[in-house]
Task: inverse folding
């Protein structure tokens, strides 16, 4: 079963917002065996919307539209759909009651534009949007399903999860798609491919292997499509085992989890706590961990010590250490990590200190120089990394390297005990 | 001048990665007067690539393709372009030398797949990719320009900025597009529209007004297209002034900057320093500030105190305060902010403590309850916010609210002095 996503709105095309909705929809649709054939971002123009709708229906059976449903003039999705399906707009009473209640709750008056939000093309199925005022509309047209949803992420997500996906599942007999990820580090894409060439060659046509390189890691993804879920899982598991056996020392994870979530789960299972002492990553690693519910069981907190004064005051880094070796040094990184373990009373701590750029580099320590230390109550180990010149990329790479260094240390320590 | 972006790769369609490239390209193209008509994400399939290329050329003059240029089997962009333009692949000697040097520098051997990276369709213009091994290819076809670039963000960005955009500018006489943003808070989209309806009505056809709501804010965007840059700026400035005068108390910013960057610039101009005491936002606010070069002039650092123990140890929050009022309270937020100002020796501090969810709520303090305090050396003010049930959304909303609270406080304090 193929679907297409059409996102409507100039704000995506001029780059004012990044389209995160489509990625989320892709993940959720894949879980129920719907493959996204194309994602199309277009402007708020009637003609362009009609053309995109026509093109999408040539390729896919389910067309999911987001955006362009606001109460203001630049939003034309609803009027365009009304014309496209030849269904005049009429007030939907259930939606009107819902919109009225919404404004009552906020204690705000309704204006003409808000009442218009309750209008829908006469003939579509209205799907109640509990999280907002713009109704979701489900059309059936020449055996195709076209759904129009608001672009506000939490409205769209609720509608997809609770309403649209269950309705799609009911309507079609869907094949299963099983994805298996293998996260690797330490070997480039082409070298990995060479190592497992014969395994890849032997994959049946319904199983695809993709290489997704990112920041010093390569994620391998096996995707199997078919109707017998158990058989697919068995097949994919078998190929995964073969690949993992072949490239074992480069494999970090085979669960489909963000790396930081896998670390939290792993440390939680072993009742270990973590704190952070971040300098150049500026809170990014803390943010990665604390995005995930349940992080607080493992992650106790940390500090972002941008200034040297704070490195001394909060982490107890020695003034002499900073004077003799500088803020970006093995010694400072190690003292930061030990300071975090001791002051924040955790089992492990990561410290990161470096030059993210674009300024602040020297001949000795160019932009991209980063020291990362991992400490536990007995020991600390620091490692030097040399990244590139882009600030955000350096922050991301340092975060990834810090998590890898911690993870490897954890595995070593647990093996030793 | 219209352009279209085609991103190639299953990883976007299954949602494994979010397409941030296209948004960045949209911003950069707009700056030189190129409007992105459509962004299309498609799979690594020859037929689909050909079809997308045909469709795009019906609408636009410049087609920018990213992705699908890796050395592995799932990447078919180059062979497809070779067939599409009827240009057989041949080794490009300059690229081969570059790829060899690249591997020499990394001290790694080259394999067959790496040598193939130096192949290009015979007849395209090869644009050197200094940041990677996949060459960038520029095609001219029936008066259209088609460019194929790698999807790795820092390779694509360098190629666009240093090579592709300058070549596009040389090639076409481009109109200017002037964007002016007005960031507002405190008034919903439809109410804003009602307030400025007559101004919007009076806009000439070459100036568009868009409403971009996000997390309690609405960004208004005026976009003017034409060939006389000075006249456009004058016109847009005049309409901006009219709008700002009408809705003055809801306007936060008229610069086209991320909010956090505007705060850094503003505090820097007044030689003020900032520290943070984050609980439920978990380092996210620190990350927002430290993304930007030069943040260290204002932002000294901070702490992420997830546990109560750390709130006491690092920020000096009273044990009795936590016992009597709880971690999520006006008192705790205030003591956290004052603790940060005192311990981290900054002019201002923000403290955020709340329940991000999905767990941890109570009848008294449901998920989404957040206290935010802003302190300076003389005073502290705390405010209660009630957000919703989604963890990531609560983190983002709290960060935005914290920055707004700080910004309003700064403006008040500076007016008073």
Result:
């Amino acid at each position: 079963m193929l679907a297409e996503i059409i996102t409507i709105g100039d704000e995506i095309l001029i780059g004012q917002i990044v389209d995160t909705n489509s990625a989320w929809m892709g993940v959720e649709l894949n879980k129920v065996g719907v493959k996204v054939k194309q994602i199309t971002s277009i402007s708020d123009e009637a003609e362009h919307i009609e053309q995109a709708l026509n093109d999408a229906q040539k390729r896919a059976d389910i067309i999911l539209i987001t955006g362009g449903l606001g109460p203001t003039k630049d939003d034309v999705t609803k009027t365009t759909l009304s014309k496209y399906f030849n269904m005049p707009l009429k007030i939907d009473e259930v939606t009107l009651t819902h919109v009225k209640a919404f404004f009552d709750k906020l204690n705000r008056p309704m204006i003409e534009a808000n009442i218009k939000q309750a209008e829908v093309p006469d003939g579509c199925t209205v799907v109640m949007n509990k999280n907002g005022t713009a109704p979701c509309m489900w059309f059936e047209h020449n055996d195709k399903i076209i759904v129009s949803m608001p672009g506000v992420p939490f409205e769209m997500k609720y509608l997809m999860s609770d309403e649209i996906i269950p309705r799609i599942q009911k309507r079609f007999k869907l094949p299963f798609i099983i994805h298996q990820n293998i996260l690797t580090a330490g070997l480039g894409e082409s070298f990995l491919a060479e190592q497992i060439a014969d395994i890849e060659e032997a994959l049946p046509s319904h199983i695809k292997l993709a290489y997704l390189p990112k920041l010093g890691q390569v994620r391998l993804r096996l995707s199997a499509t078919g109707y017998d879920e158990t058989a697919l899982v068995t097949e994919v598991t078998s190929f995964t085992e073969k690949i993992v056996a072949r490239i074992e020392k480069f494999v970090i994870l085979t669960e489909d989890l963000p790396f930081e979530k896998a670390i939290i789960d792993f440390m939680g299972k072993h009742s270990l706590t973590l704190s952070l002492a971040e300098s150049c990553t500026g809170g990014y690693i803390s943010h990665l961990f604390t995005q995930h519910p349940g992080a607080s069981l493992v992650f106790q907190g940390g500090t972002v010590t941008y200034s040297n004064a704070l490195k001394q005051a909060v982490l107890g880094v020695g003034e002499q250490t900073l004077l003799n070796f500088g803020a970006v040094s093995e010694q400072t990184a190690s003292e930061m990590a030990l300071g975090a373990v001791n002051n924040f009373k955790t089992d492990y701590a990561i410290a990161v200190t470096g030059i993210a750029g674009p300024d602040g580099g020297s001949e000795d320590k160019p932009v991209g120089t980063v020291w990362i230390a991992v400490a536990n109550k007995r020991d600390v180990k620091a490692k030097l990394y040399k990244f590139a010149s882009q600030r955000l990329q350096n922050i991301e790479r340092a975060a990834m390297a810090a998590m890898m260094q911690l993870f490897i240390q954890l595995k070593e320590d647990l093996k030793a005990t």
In short: The mean pLDDT of chain B is 92.
